[in-house]
Amino acid sequence: MSDESKALGEIRDRIDSIDQQIQTLINQRAQCAKDVADVKLRAKKSDDAIFYRPEREAQVLRRVMERNQGPLGDEEMARLFREVMSACLALEKPMHIAYLGPQGTFTQAAALKHFGHSVISVPQVAIDEVFRDVEAGESHYGVVPVENSTEGMINHTLDMFVSSPLRICGEVKLRIHHHLLAGSDTDLSKIEKIYSHQQSLAQCRRWLDANWKKVERVAVSSNAEAARRVKAEPNSAAIAGDMAAELYGLVNIAKNIEDQPDNTTRFLIVGREDVPASGDDKTSILVSMKNCPGALYHLLEPFHRHGISLTRIETRPSTSDTWAYVFYIDFEGHYTDKNVQEVIEEISKEAVEIKHLGSYPVGVL
Ligand SMILES: O=C(O)C(=O)C[C@]1(C(=O)O)C=C[C@@H](O)C=C1
């Protein structure tokens, strides 16, 4: 036996022994999750028991990252734990997660990034349908896009919160990489149409102008739908992400063609319950103000005075007469924090209506 194969053999024996220990420990952890489920079931009627605990998951993942010593990177390690926790939760209760489909969309990628791969992801045809599915109790949680760093807010999602009883219980950010995809036997010189979602066409506008100026751009309902069409239609190409490329077996003609290299989309997790504080949280509220001078000042001044940082403020046109202005505000802190309660109380005196959309852990991964 050569020195090299002897050294390899020894290291692999060590790996085998470590794997065995990891496996035993993961199963001990899974047994704990089952015990947790029993406690939750005993405390509540089985229909009401809440198995998914976003605040606890955020705390576990933050701790994993804090104590990580490498050589694996913090995010890599957290992703491994993400999957372990996902499998443990599935043992407690398999989670149904509605998302803006079809299969292969960035929203599905966001859902799997947030919940891990042991959930059952259920595609819906529109943002309203994701809300409806969770409201009706068909799915436990839903995932919808809310803002993109290049294209701004997704107004349809914001507008849903005016009437929906759902709560925001999490957020997840995803780096969006677009690729130009086509069937493996496509002759590139014959491409006549490029399909994609309108937002993705906009996010790649400069690249398209520089490289495919004369080719028609066709907006369809999603990137995954674009990939599906291209699979069946010769002389066409799609702009979509890795998941859609893999799902429809398309070839990558040009990678990462988004105009902004840090193109990121933020998604919200919606559910039916409030989430307790995790120690690093955000709150979203919707406030309608009377159309009077200084309305915005009266709304924002209390946040400044109580030392609360706003992370976003967005205005939408009112859908009813009473709602002259509707502001969507995200800020740091949890609804149960004393300073947050004080601000809410002060704003309530000026506002026509305030709706708490949810307090949730700041996205960890
Ligand atoms: O701590 C709990 O409540 C659990 O159910 C355990 C656990 C975990 O595996 O750590 C699993 C699912 C929850 O979403 C949070 C954490």
From TrEMBL:
<comment type="pathway">
    <text>Metabolic intermediate biosynthesis; prephenate biosynthesis; prephenate from chorismate: step 1/1.</text>
</comment>
<keyword id="KW-0028">Amino-acid biosynthesis</keyword>
<dbReference type="InterPro" id="IPR008242">
    <property type="entry name" value="Chor_mutase/pphenate_deHydtase"/>
</dbReference>
<feature type="domain" description="ACT">
    <location>
        <begin position="284"/>
        <end position="361"/>
    </location>
</feature>
<protein>
    <recommendedName>
        <fullName>Bifunctional chorismate mutase/prephenate dehydratase</fullName>
        <ecNumber>4.2.1.51</ecNumber>
        <ecNumber>5.4.99.5</ecNumber>
    </recommendedName>
</protein>
<keyword id="KW-0963">Cytoplasm</keyword>
<dbReference type="Pfam" id="PF00800">
    <property type="entry name" value="PDT"/>
</dbReference>
<dbReference type="Pfam" id="PF01842">
    <property type="entry name" value="ACT"/>
</dbReference>
<dbReference type="InterPro" id="IPR045865">
    <property type="entry name" value="ACT-like_dom_sf"/>
</dbReference>
<keyword id="KW-0456">Lyase</keyword>
<dbReference type="InterPro" id="IPR010957">
    <property type="entry name" value="G/b/e-P-prot_chorismate_mutase"/>
</dbReference>
<keyword id="KW-0511">Multifunctional enzyme</keyword>
<dbReference type="InterPro" id="IPR001086">
    <property type="entry name" value="Preph_deHydtase"/>
</dbReference>
<dbReference type="InterPro" id="IPR036263">
    <property type="entry name" value="Chorismate_II_sf"/>
</dbReference>
<feature type="domain" description="Prephenate dehydratase">
    <location>
        <begin position="96"/>
        <end position="272"/>
    </location>
</feature>
<dbReference type="InterPro" id="IPR002701">
    <property type="entry name" value="CM_II_prokaryot"/>
</dbReference>
<dbReference type="GO" id="GO:0004664">
    <property type="term" value="F:prephenate dehydratase activity"/>
</dbReference>
<keyword id="KW-0057">Aromatic amino acid biosynthesis</keyword>
<dbReference type="InterPro" id="IPR018528">
    <property type="entry name" value="Preph_deHydtase_CS"/>
</dbReference>
<comment type="function">
    <text>Catalyzes the Claisen rearrangement of chorismate to prephenate and the decarboxylation/dehydration of prephenate to phenylpyruvate.</text>
</comment>
<comment type="pathway">
    <text>Amino-acid biosynthesis; L-phenylalanine biosynthesis; phenylpyruvate from prephenate: step 1/1.</text>
</comment>
<keyword id="KW-0413">Isomerase</keyword>
<keyword id="KW-0584">Phenylalanine biosynthesis</keyword>
<dbReference type="Pfam" id="PF01817">
    <property type="entry name" value="CM_2"/>
</dbReference>
<feature type="domain" description="Chorismate mutase">
    <location>
        <begin position="2"/>
        <end position="96"/>
    </location>
</feature>
<dbReference type="InterPro" id="IPR002912">
    <property type="entry name" value="ACT_dom"/>
</dbReference>
<dbReference type="InterPro" id="IPR036979">
    <property type="entry name" value="CM_dom_sf"/>
</dbReference>
